[in-house]
Amino acid sequence: MTTTPTAPRSVFPRGSWTETARIAALLRRETVGGALLLVATVLALVWANSPWGAAYARLRDLVVGPEALHLDLTLGAWAGDGLLAIFFFVAGLELKREFVAGDLRDPRRAALPVVAAVGGMAVPAALFALVNLRAGDGALQGWAIPTATDIAFALAVLAVVSTHLPGALRTFLLTLAVVDDLLAITIIAIFYTRDLDLPLLALALLPLAVFGFLVQRRVRSWWLLVPLAALTWGLVHASGVHATVAGVLLAFTVPVMRSEAAGGPGAGPGLAEHLEHRIRPLSAGFAVPVFAFFAAGVTVGGLTGLRSALADTVALGIVVGLVLGKTIGIFTATYLMARFTRATLDEDLRWVDVAGVAVLAGIGFTVSLLIGELAYGSGSERDEHVKVGVLVGSLVAALLASVVLRLRNRTYRRLCAAEELDSDADGTPDVYQDGSSARG
Q: What does pTM read for this prediction?
């Protein structure tokens, strides 16, 4: 009796055409958001370092909101606590959809980006702690700053260098960044929550439960869902837990699959995809750029000020964590996963491609700046050094990733062309119909 040899597992197996097309469309939208994020960052830096820098500071520190509800916050705080909750709501929807209905519902596929994300957070945190081990003065409080990846900025870099990453690598990068964001918000909830008010936190579960009940019943009425979401956010904020946690909790209550009464999974997009489609433009086009505008306006003070900021071990630890930590952590975790599962790379890919994606993940911005504010206090001198460290580290990672990926761009272009070949009239490339999509 002869047995048919099984094909070796692939580290980056080709997914289904439906999921590949969805990811490609999603990344195109995120690229636009990345461009807006870059514009907002540059505008904030230019304004803060101009003769009118005091006006920028006054705008950022302008207090608005009802004092009776403890919501008399500065515009910068509203951006960090309020607008980023929208960002994390979208990230939570994307992560839940990937693991419930996407290609990552297969645990074997899901394991790689999850393990890579953990490695890409643990090593930067360890390197930051190593650099600041003897610094004292509360420097170690910012250990989590270099652990986050900014997917919008990373995709903006990809757009600039015209890199045609293969579908499997694009999915890996997106999922890695989303898992990274979820782990980061978990870190914020556990390690950066002060003066916890348990009764208010328990009270927040009531509107959250009602919101969950309505979305499980496939209710889409904004006049019902938005007030409940706002109430949940307000109570979480008042409890002492960072309010962005509310965005993730609300997202996890939203169903991914369509109900049987509506035709089941094959009847079209579920409520999670519907809400993501509606809210992602608000997140990428407004919420994140506005946060970046208020968070990135650091007064550098020329080369002298830049050298002074980087002399702080906190800023140095951030640069080391983002540039070296992310690369080492993600690449090593991916390599070990391949080694222990006896998986192989696609014949057209090389380990340098994995290294390029790992370096690209060192672009940390949105969540890194948020953690910096929580660790050292918004507007403090050390918070200013955090901003310099994040900007410098992200810029170095972007430049290095651009060099690596640009050298391989011809190969990526050929792979993408092969994926898009279509000899049929059904709109699905042949490469996704020959059974190869099932490998791995």
A: 0.84
